[in-house]
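Morning, I've got a small favour to ask if you have a moment. Here's the protein in full, and shout if anything looks odd to you:
***
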Amino acid sequence: MTIGHHAMIDQWYPVALASQLPPEGRTTQLMGTAIRVLPGDPVRVVTGDGRDLRVTLRYGHVWTSLGEPSKDLFDIPEADQPGRRLVEVGVVRVRCSPLRAVENFLDIAHFPFVHTDILGAEPHTEVGKYDVEIREKEDEVWATKVQFYQPQAAKSATGGITTDYMYRVPAPTSTVLYKTCPARPGEWDVITLFVQPLTEELCDVWPWMALFDDETALTDLIHFQQMIFLQDRSILENQIPRLLPLDPGREIPTRADLTSVAYRRWLKRHQFTYGAQLVAQ
């Protein structure tokens, strides 16, 4: 196993919904290793050869690691904020690199073309200037001061608005989006993508949300988010190369891609290369 694979083995990954574990458990895989998620108190995750893995329950999901994480799972303070609806969207299987799934979530420029008349629309296609940084203290990628016109920014939105965004990457296969909350100005809605790497070219994606929305039915919230991601899936499954290129010369970035550039640089710095292509081929 390569160094980059070792670096990612010591990360936390979602492997099941904590509230929806069937009595017989969930059989799945993590980075090519067969595992079973077993209900109980406590929930257990075991490998095919019977080895118990570390487990933590957070954000409605069962998280585990094939290695020994050096720190606890990243914190999302909004998960504990009174009045928020915590929405488990379920799981979508995608035939793409787990790193590609995260990078696509960070891409703003595709909104008008992939999510037409929902998250974007022509002629509002320009991505304005925004700030991107790798925050050294937290060791996370952040994009701030992002703005984009959206015909329907959320299920609760009643008309087009210019939406403020912040993007955060706290782990190689997890990303957090903070966006304007139509129902409560001054607060952020939180939409996350937690990615389970099945192999380097196949992943299970577990979206999760923490929203201020007391009006919309839960099934409508879930269906709205699933619709958005299924629109993304067709794009993700047709990207070439299938692995995420970390070589800066492989794909030509534009201003809209600054977050992706920082994400790739951060992955390379930490040798997070499971699902990545290091050298142009």
Observations:
- Residues 110-121 have pLDDT under 50 and may be disordered.
- The longest strand covers residues 188-199.
- The chain has five helices and 16 strands.
- The domain at 1-70 is CATH 2.20.25.680 (N-terminal domain of TfIIb).
